Amino acid sequence: MAQMELWSNGNKRQMFTPDVPIDHVIVSPLNPRQTRTDEHIKDIADLIVQNGFDQTCAPKAYRNNGCYEVFAGGNRLLAAQKAGCVSIPLYVYEGYEEAELWKLAYLDNDQAGKHNEVSCVDIWMDYQRRKAAGWSQNEIADALGVSQTLVSFRLRLAALSPAILDYFITTNGLNERHAREIVDLLPGNNLDPWLTRDAAMLEVIETVIKRTVAPTAKHFAEEVEKFNATIAHAQDCLGKLDEQWHEQFIQLLAKKKARSTAQVDAHYNTIAKLQADDARRQTEAAELAARKATEEEQRKVRESYLVEQRNYYLSKLVHGDARKVHIPLNIKLLFTDPPYGKDYQSNRRVVTSQADKIENDNEAAFDLLADVLGRFYPRMAEDSFALVWCDWRHQCRFADIITGAGFEIRAEVIWNKPNHGSGDIYGAPAPKHEKFFFAVKGNPKLTEGKRFDSVLDGSKFLGSGHPTEKPTDLIAMVIESLTLEGDVVADPFMGSGSVPLTAFRLQRDFWGCDLSEQWHKFAGEQLFNLVKAQVK
User: Fold this and answer.
1) Which end of the chain is more exposed for a tag (fewer CB within 10 A), N or C?
2) Distance CA 469, CA 502 (A)
3) pLDDT tens digits, one per residue of 38-79
4) By CB neighbour count within 10 A (0-12 exposed, 13-18 middle, 19+ buried), where does 231 fall?
């Protein structure tokens, strides 16, 4: 067999072999096509008999245990066998990994015009075979260069009933876009034997095919929407009936082949009247029992949901050192009030005891801020904001730290405080403002129509008693100006939690961290209260 090398790179080679003995060639398990018709194979075989084998359409194969396994071009191989060919030309791939060959099989399928495309069902089942062979969804996605979401979806389609899959195999024009609409049907297993989900899928397919010569995804979506409305309404009606009447209701739906909400209503009214007549003597007791049962079920659901929500959101508030904890990715806004390095303790209180000092609020604060910003910079979104509160005494050092971490300072923003601080009450004016640096990574843009001034008011607080608490109304305005719902807002020095709590109320994703057990606990309690209010 004369071979011609077409391409090579390292140990990988692509060879053209014009006359491989056909009895040494089989279809590879990597070939995604499993569905073939005798008519199609015969048509290709007839062309081979008439014109010979078109070498430009030679199958693609690799050698394994002395045999050539065709991973792309299985139909052409079978047609050549049917045509009585003694040998067959092959493109032989050497030195390729299994995943690479599998991807090449799909690339061959994407070359429109050379052959019939592999059916969508064959693709779904091919994914299923890979999974059964031990491949993870991520490995399948990486091998084919598709998203893990698509892999998961196609594995879901592979699990459809054989009857539904058969429609997609045998009916011209049905494709994955249609299947995507069909799987949106509501589950109806509790309505068996009236209308199971599989039965509803089959009816949708049959109805659309009968009504439409060239069905589109929209046709299927419209039919699914009708079925979903009917199924949902039937489930609602089922829930209104006592359990002892469920079977009669479902049997009536099945007998009358109800397929609209109006028909479901009519049959529900029939059963509801029978139920009312039978249960009239026990109405009050039954209603009371049903109400208590419903309330108890709702309470359990709420409590379970509340625990899940509490655990989920509290996991975003970390008690620890921001230099050592795990930091989220793709942070859109870093808004933080770090220790200023001045060993601060409030002097406002006279009668009551003074507030505790801020942890790390000494010379070590500068190294701390540099370490934290250095860790956060690579975790920030490509275009993002970093707002860092600072004290006028050390603003130059803070600026150097911020730019040293990689951020670009674009402005200083002044907070016009509603009350002045104490400061040096004998030798200096009463301080009535604080500032933060407005810095960026990349080139982010403010939310359209949300630009704010460089001097801001803010007078609403959590009331935590934290000595350096910042106003939530100012924080909220800044968050809305710089982020959208779902964006990540982070504060590695969260104190009593003004930033993450405000971000939660504004439906942003959030993350906060503080070294103080006292303030971490306070922020967690406040967050739990917000979660409880949301669950209500």
Assistant:
1) C
2) 13
3) 998 999 999 999 999 988 889 999 999 999 999 999 999 999
4) buried
Per-residue model confidence (pLDDT) at position 509: 96
Structure tokens at 235: 């489930």
For 247, half-sphere exposure in the C-beta direction (CA atoms, 13 angstrom radius) is 1
Q: CA 432 to CA 420: how far, in whole Å?
A: 4
Name residue, tokens 């050539």. Answer: 68
The count of residues in the chain is 536
Amino acid type, 167: Y
pLDDT in tens, 464-486: 999 999 999 999 999 999 999 99
The hierarchical CATH code for the domain 4-118 is 3.90.1530.10
One-letter identity of residue 332 = K
CATH number of 315-535: 3.90.1640.10, 3.40.50.150, 3.40.30.10, 3.30.450.20? 3.40.50.150
* Residue-averaged pLDDT of the chain: 89
CA pair distance 315, 252, nearest whole angstrom: 50
Render pLDDT for 101-155 as a digit per residue (tens, 0 to 9).
999 998 887 664 556 778 899 999 999 999 999 999 999 999 999 999 999 999 9
Is residue 201 within 8 A of residue 179, CB to CB? The reply is no
- Percent of the chain scoring above 70 in pLDDT: 92
Q: CATH 3.40.50.150 occupies which residues in the chain?
A: 315-535
pTM given for the model = 0.49
Give the three-class secondary structure for 490: strand
Nearest-CA neighbor of 329 among 380, 371, 266, 268?
380
- Give residues with Cβ within 8 angstroms of 226, minimum separation 6: 260
Cα–Cα dist 369/267, whole Å:
70
Which residue do the tokens 């078109």 mark? 54
